[in-house]
Every structure is written in structure tokens, then in C-alpha cells.
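FOLDING PROBLEM:
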Amino acid sequence: MNRLEHANLVVKTIQPSLDFILTAFPEWYVRGSGEGRWAGESRNWLHVGDDDYYLTLNDGAQGSNRDLSGLTPGLAHLGFVVDDIEALMARLEAKGYAIDIIGRDHPHRKTVYYIDPNGFQFEFMQYLTDDATLKNQYGGESGPLTRGQAIETDAVKGEAFIRELYRQVDAKNSDYLAGVLNNEVNFRIGDNPLLQDKAEVILANQSFFNSIHSMEHQLDLIWQDDNHIGCHGQVNYVRLDGSELSAKFSTSLKIENEKIRDYYVFADLSKL
């Protein structure tokens, strides 16, 4: 019997993708992990899966994942068959993961797509029949392909949005920031100068991402008042030399025209 045993992914930071995968598949576990070298650089690796199948996650990725709306070569998505797609969606929603696409209606299967914090698209499919002819039927779809939105202007899902924001920040995904920031933006972190040019904000974040090895934000309290979203929590940094620092932080966001208009982070980073 031939079968696909694993897929090997290169990510900026392992933990955000690992959290997503273990939320989708709580029965999976970390089979092994370690450190190796590739292209002259040291990097960490991890295998997550079950006894028969797994995904490899390697950190240290440079650059951005491919544009899923374009035609550049590379991985389009990873597809998984699940027994209960509604339960999977409920688990992901509870952790704040936003749906990317809901597949068109089909009499014999349901599909939903998510994008993990490192920019990989995951397709989850539940078959509604054991009949192979019906399961593998090409065509038969009806209704629209529904694309999710990061922010819904009428009723912004504050907790889901800010959790996704910090997953992407922890993954050092500046492309994501570029997509959710308003062209007119106010950004400040700590006592640094106020930035109001979007390109400068992205550049400043890229520079900060490059100045540390990794970070992980823990959100302890999230609130929302109309188009304002905020949170309190703790961020754990790993410096380039491997030393660690933890700091308390608060973030205040204002949403305007479906994008972040004001982005203020209050934290003491003087020791970083």
C-alpha cells in the first residue's frame, strides 16, 4: 500500500502553527523534536501527528509564504478528512481562529478552510457518505463560495480578531500586518515615537522582529467597546543570544473601514 506519510513545512516560528494544529486535532501529539542545520543556519524541528501520519515544522523561515490568491509556484493547501467538521470548527472558533473559506454546498461532503498563523492554508473535509462514487463526485456543488473576513464592521468579533493579530505577530508575519492596517494609521509601542505612515509601521515591525529570536503573547483579558478592542497580557521574549525576558503589556486598537486605525501598545521594553 502506498500512502502519504508526512508533509514538511518551514515556518517562521513553530509554536503558533503547533497550537493551531493541536486545536484542530486534539488527539495528535508531539512525536519528537530537536535542532539541526540547514543552509548554514541552525534551526529547530518538530514532528506533530499520530502513530501513522505527521507534519514536520521547521523554524527559521525567511521571507513570506506564497500569495494564495496568486499563481506563484508552491503549496496551495493541505487537505484533511475529519469525522465531525462542526466540532472542529467549534474548537477553532473557541480559540479565536477565523474561517478563511466555507466550501460550496455539496450533497455528499462539507468543506472549510483556515489559514494558520504562518500562512499555510488547511482544508478540512467531512464526507457524508461511505459510497466512494458519491464521495469522489466531481461537480454537484451549489450556492456561493463564502470567504471569511478578518474584521466584520457591523459586529467586530474583538476576541477572535485580537487573538489572531497576536498569533500573526508571534509568527513575525509582517504581510498580515500590512493587510489589516488602515492606510492612515497611528502606531506606537512603548515610549517610541508615534508613526503615522503605514510603510514606516511595517518597516518598524520588521526591524523589531529581526532584533529578537522569538516571542509569545499570552492574552489574559480582552474587551471590546464598539469599534475599540483592547487586551492585557504578558509577552515572553527570547533574545538572539537565547536569554529570555517577560513583560506585561496592554494594547488598544481602533477599527475604521475594516482596518486598524489606531494601534497603541503599552509596555516597558527598556530591558529588551
In short: Confidence is low (pLDDT under 50) at residues 150-156. The chain has six helices and 15 strands. Residues 198-211 form the longest helix (14 residues).
